[in-house]
Write a structure and sequence with these properties.
MAE-28990/MAE-18760-like HEPN domain-containing protein, globular, 70% helix
Length: 232
């Protein structure tokens, strides 16, 4: 039987700790790249995304590949990942009214009523985001997101941090101020859509982006609910 001295055990433990720290730092850098690429294409960091998928997106140099990859990811096996996403939203600790609205959005999606689905999902997003504000009367969603991002240190890696970073970028694009006399933005804009000014043809993947945005928020809700329980 191999017997190690205390010095040898300490050296092995130090090497393991160093390797683990290097792995975390490497994954942190990959998440930074992924968040940047996803934001460019209008995505938040998907809660369903596994490590392999993160590494795949981090290494691609073609932005079109991201949308093709995520379309495959969410539609394979008769939309199984999308169904899992919707079920995850309905199982999360959000208000029952928002769960019911999400279920109706899913029914609209299945019936290819994409504009109806997208418009209602915006209400779900705003309803969940409002719970993160100290002021429940505050409807400034960009301010709510930025305030959460500012609570994280500039260095260090957490999935929660990167979800908020991606969400902040997503909300800034979604709520981008628009001049209705100018050309409509190329991606879904909350103001154009809800004020009845949009000629944007909403499709299947636009809705999946919004379902994904809701699920990303629900993941954070779950984490913060567990943290609150632990503190109590």
């Amino acid at each position: 039987m191999l017997e190690l001295t205390k010095e040898q055990m300490d050296a092995i433990q130090k090497a393991i700790s160093k390797k683990a720290e290097e792995s975390v730092q490497e994954f942190d850098k990959e998440l930074d790249v992924v968040v940047s690429k996803l934001s460019t294409e209008g995505w938040t960091l998907p809660a369903e995304l596994n490590i392999y998928a993160v590494k795949t997106i981090a290494k691609t140099n073609k932005l079109d590949d991201i949308n093709a990859f995520l379309k495959w990811f969410f539609t394979i096996e008769d939309f199984q990942k999308t169904k899992d996403m919707v079920n995850g939203i309905k199982a999360s600790p959000i208000k029952e009214g928002l769960k019911n609205l999400t279920d109706q959005c899913w029914q609209a999606f299945q019936n290819k009523l994409y504009a109806v689905c997208a418009t209602s999902l915006l209400s779900v997003i705003e309803g969940i985001l409002s719970e993160f504000s100290d002021d429940k009367q505050d409807v400034r969603m960009m301010k709510v997101c930025q305030k959460k991002v500012d609570t994280f240190p500039s260095t260090g890696s957490t999935i929660q941090k990167h979800i908020w970073l991606s969400y902040n970028n997503f909300i800034r694009n979604l709520y981008q101020k628009s001049d209705f006399s100018a050309d409509e933005p190329e991606t879904i804009n909350r103001h154009w859509l809800l004020h009845g000014r949009s000629d944007f043809e909403i499709d299947e993947m636009d809705c999946i982006r919004l379902f994904n945005a809701v699920q990303s928020l629900c993941m954070i809700v779950k984490v913060e609910a567990k943290e609150t329980q632990s503190e109590n």
